[in-house]
Design a protein that fits this description.
- The protein is an alpha/beta fold and about 230 residues long.
- It has one domain: TIM Barrel, CATH 3.20.20.70.
- Helices cover about 30% and strands about 20% of the residues.
- The protein is built from 8 helices and 8 strands; from the N terminus they run βαβαβαβαββαβαβαα.
- An 8-stranded parallel β-sheet has the order 1-8-7-6-5-4-3-2.
- Helix 6 packs across helix 8.
- The two termini are about 15 Å apart.
- Bound molecules: D-xylitol-5-phosphate and zinc ion.
- The site of zinc ion has 6 residues, from strand 2.
- D-xylitol-5-phosphate binds next to strand 2, strand 8 and helix 7.
Length: about 230
């Protein structure tokens, strides 16, 4: 939201053990994750392939918080219903994925989900200015999407611009890519309230050593807290 409020941490399971998603999801939630971020890639919009609707549906059985599904696919519209049936709470589509983001956001809400719109690093904040009343979340990519573990690209100016144009609307600003305790304070100071983090949450831990996830989540939360004080 544009309002100053508590920061949510959304670990990306792209950095989890792909042979053990159920336990990984339960571990991050037990260790303090606010949302679970699921990165869907199609090998076309981005140069990597991940999860289709049946996999996402299987994750749903383990998610007790909020399943935040980030579609890096094109086209989007033919798959909206399938991800609704899979149990996504929030479905985010890229503004670059097609010519009709307005229709896409309407369709996502029409299917009973919260609607998100994501912006690649090269896309200006103004690209979403006319769909903010149809969106519950704007995701600012701070890496070029496709892979976890990439270096943070500073998008502070874009985040601040978005924060200003969102105004009083109840729209989350989510940051995705290279978020860690060093980069989190910057993006929160600029107006972000949801932080996706893959490698910074999962690094050093495992389902057999989940306290590490808890420490990593707390390190990001603590770095981000107090920024708005
Ligand atoms: C990138 C994905 C991100 C990614 C974040 O294409 O959308 O969610 O997994 O990973 P880290 O935090 O490792 O940059
Ligand atoms: Zn993502």
């Amino acid at each position: 939201m544009s309002q100053r409020r508590s920061v949510k941490i959304a670990p990306s399971i792209l950095s989890a053990d792909f042979a053990d998603f159920g336990r990984e999801i339960r571990a991050i939630e037990d260790q303090g994750a606010d949302w679970v971020h699921v990165d869907v890639m199609d090998g076309h919009f981005v140069p990597n392939l991940t999860f289709g609707p049946p996999a996402v549906k299987a994750f749903r059985r383990h998610v007790k918080t909020v399943m935040d599904v980030h579609l890096m696919i094109a086209p989007v519209d033919p798959y909206i219903e399938a991800y609704a049936e899979a149990g996504a709470d929030i479905l985010t589509a890229h503004v670059e994925a097609g010519p009709h983001i307005h229709r896409t956001l309407q369709a996502i809400r029409g299917a009973g989900m919260k609607a998100g719109v994501a912006l690649n690093p090269g896309t200006p904040a103004s690209a979403v200015a006319h769909v903010l009343d149809l969106a519950d979340l704007v995701c600012v990519m701070t890496v070029n999407p496709g892979f976890g573990g990439q270096s943070f690209i500073d998008m502070t100016g874009k985040i601040a611009e978005l924060h200003a144009i969102i105004g009083d609307r109840p729209v989350h600003i989510e940051i995705d890519g290279g978020v860690d305790p060093k980069t989190a304070p910057k993006v929160v100071a600029a107006g972000a309230d949801v932080l996706v983090a893959g490698s910074a949450v999962f690094k050093g831990g495992s389902v057999d050593d989940p306290e590490v996830y808890g420490r990593n989540i707390r390190a990001i939360r603590e770095a981000a807290s107090g920024v708005w004080a």
